[in-house]
TrEMBL record:
It holds the Pfam family EipB_like. This is Cell envelope integrity EipB family protein. Keywords: Signal. Residues 1-26 form the signal peptide. The lineage of its organism: Bacteria, Pseudomonadati, Pseudomonadota, Alphaproteobacteria, Hyphomicrobiales. The keyword Signal applies. It comes from the Bacteria. InterPro entries: EipB-like.
Length: 287
């Protein structure tokens, strides 16, 4: 049971995807990056989580929880992300386990710097923590300076994107009418040392006003004329030949970076995330 909670926690941090993307080595001028990033909108969203499916031999008998996600900043300096995910998982033995994950990060507009801090508690006991800073050099190589759980330095190579870069790349892919985005993602989880291979699949665009049966939270003027796309992102162990993802996240992605209709698939069980509230936040003034 605790192992399941730890997997759920690690991938919860990746929601900064998530929900959270151009790459610095893609020869994109800084001006163009800033122009695309300006399409993002600062917001705070709350999602209620319910059990959507269990595998046939799953030991999970019930699950429920909540995600509070905040995305803020501006197109001049960078974007900050804060995510809190609390999930109660009920086992077949009648026992319940609560996983409480907090992930925060800041990423500059050009994708050169990524600061992160992640913590997971299981039944109020700290199980995992990671904190550090990733820097991209002029040649595209990314080096991570880790302060927690232990000080260290690791080179994760080039061709890696951070969460907000990943979101930008997904939106770029959707705008071009393309359907597949395969990219390596670093989000600071797993002791700040892990890179994930991801496969993103983008579906057909939903025109503004399409699928009228939207939850009340997203019926806002800021979204009335905004396109969105169904997106599925699967996460794999980097460099592994394993065909089964360790985690899959599906959602509808608005062109301004807001996500709704979440599905979090951990293999053993799947959670559905329904947006309960959405607040549009003022952008942070440029320095």
């Amino acid at each position: 049971m605790n192992a399941i909670c730890r997997v759920a926690a690690r991938r919860a941090a990746a929601l900064g995807l998530g929900l959270a993307a151009g790459i610095a080595t893609a020869a994109v001028a800084g001006e163009a990056v800033a122009e695309e990033a300006s399409a993002f909108i600062a917001h705070r969203a709350v999602y209620d989580l319910t059990l959507d499916r269990m595998a046939a031999k799953s030991t999970v008998q019930g699950a429920r929880g909540r995600i509070v996600y905040e995305f803020s900043g501006n197109s001049c300096d960078g974007w900050a992300m804060s995510l809190r995910q609390v999930v109660q998982i009920d086992g077949e033995d009648g026992q319940s386990t609560v996983s409480d994950t907090l992930a925060t990060s800041w990423e500059d507009v050009g994708g050169g710097t990524f600061r992160f801090a992640n913590q997971n508690l299981v039944d109020r006991n700290v199980r995992e923590v990671s904190e550090g800073r990733a820097e991209r050099s002029a040649d595209g190589n990314v080096v991570v300076q880790i302060s927690k759980p232990a000080e260290g330095r690791v080179e994760i190579g080039s061709g890696v994107v951070f969460p907000t870069q990943h979101m930008r790349r997904l939106i770029e892919t959707a705008r071009k009418g393309e359907t597949i985005l395969s990219v390596k993602v670093f989000d600071g989880t797993d002791a700040g040392r892990k890179v994930y291979d991801t496969m993103g699949v983008v579906g057909r665009p939903v025109a503004p006003g399409g699928n009228g049966a939207l939850e009340a939270a997203v019926r806002l003027p800021e979204l009335k004329e905004t396109r969105r796309w169904p997106v599925t992102v699967s996460y794999f162990e980097a460099g592994s030949d394993q065909q089964t993802p360790i985690y899959t996240l599906s959602f509808e992605l608005f062109e301004n970076g807001i996500s709704r209709d979440l599905t979090l698939d951990y293999g053993d069980f799947r959670l559905k995330g329904t947006m309960a509230t959405l607040d549009i936040l003022p952008p942070t003034p440029c320095r």
